[in-house]
Amino acid sequence: MSLPVREFSASGYRSLRQIAYPVSRLDVFVGANGVGKSNLYRALELLQGAAANTLGHDLAREGLDLAMWAGTRRANKPPRIQLAVSLSDANRLEPSYRYEVEIGFPPKDASPTFETEPQIKTETLTYLGGSRDVQLMRRDGPQVMARGEDGRPQSIAIDILGSETVLGRLEDPSRYPALDAVRRSLLEWRFYHDLRTDAGSLLRQPCVAVATPTLASDGANLAAVFATLAHIRQDTSDLDTVVDRAFPGAVLEIPGPDRTASFGMRFPEFPKRVFQADELSDGTLRFLGLAGALMAYRLPPFIALNEPESSLHPDLMEPLGQMIASASARTQIWLVTHSERLAEVIRQTGAGAVRTVFKRDGATAIEGLTILGTFRDDDD
Q1: N or C end of the chain, less CB within 10 A?
Q2: DSSP letters for 332-379
Q3: pLDDT tens per residue, range 318-365
Q4: How far apart are CA 11 and CA 69, in angstroms?
Q5: How many Å apart are CA 104 and CA 118, to the nearest integer?
């Protein structure tokens, strides 16, 4: 069972000096260029990287020195990136588990290591409930403590490099069920920001015909996602409605698959001609890719969208916003956008919160959000 996201926090990462955010079913972040909206999105990706044991590699690829907060810091305190997420059981509104990880540079006298390699300094998984919080796992440098099913803390002998996470390395679901549940929940998140539509785009290619419940992050299985709706669920009524709303009179054609699955579009001005995926315009194909992400047979428990409006005609903001709002009834959605029009469409549906992101003294801030992670309008 996937654990819903309740809170997210980050500090010391790029423009995120210190921010804590209470996550809802649908959170929309809008603001000008350069205020740090994409850094909020990227910090969530890094948390998934902790579960996949790629966090060190991901930060090294960015350049740890570039990823660190560049503003003023406390004197005599080494630079650190801190990321945290709180998750809960599906039937609880308050958080049940909190995972935190702190990353920094290796000590100058550390050996053997790479000079600028990201190092996991501390890492914890805490159970939040009952009369007191209980640490289920704690890592300080190479030292790891974990509680088994009996609840007793014990030191764990684990071969772990400084750039690796315990969350990604300690695999024993029977002994550490909470750790396993948190890891699996984070790994099920999907990030849709790279749905390419150029001539070599994977969206334009047929794919292997196999029942496919969820769109891959790169959209490579889009044709199989559509084929699953049409020929496994045998119901494309919602998808057909969205397509007609976006492209009046057009029909999405999904032929019965053989070894491969494919799709095309029939437009009212050319009723006898099916335009295959590799013939569609960038905007049409991108919208269909987003439809595959948001209307698939089974949605991931958490979807993050970064500027989905790219390449889309402004008239597509209404159907896109309505599609996002509808999908939020089936999953949690985190949306970063430049489009005020898209944000307003979602605001009018009442499905989610639209938040304005801005910069204050070089740091990313969210209008109305306090340092404690609550909104002033919620406190009134």
Answers
A1: C
A2: EEEEEES-HHHHHHHHHHTSSEEEEEEEETTEEEETTB-TTS-BHHHH
A3: 999 999 999 999 999 999 999 999 999 999 999 999 999 999 999 999
A4: 8
A5: 6
Collapsing DSSP to helix, strand or coil, 129 comes out as: coil
183 lies in the same domain as 258? no
284's CB contacts (< 8 A; 6+ apart) are: 247, 265
Same domain, residue pair 141 and 29: yes
Total number of domains constituting the chain: 2
Q: Is the domain of 196 the same as that of 302?
A: yes
What are the tens digits of pLDDT across the range 173-182? Answer: 888 999 999 9
Provide the residue range defining the domain that includes 79: 5-189+355-379
pLDDT (0 to 100) of residue 110: 61
Q: Are 229 and 239 in contact (CB under 8 A)?
A: yes
CATH value at residue 211: 3.40.50.300
Distances (CA, A) of 153 to 140, 142, 173, 217: 15, 16, 16, 38
Task: Identify whether the C-beta of residue 26 lies closer than 8 Å to the C-beta of residue 325.
Answer: yes
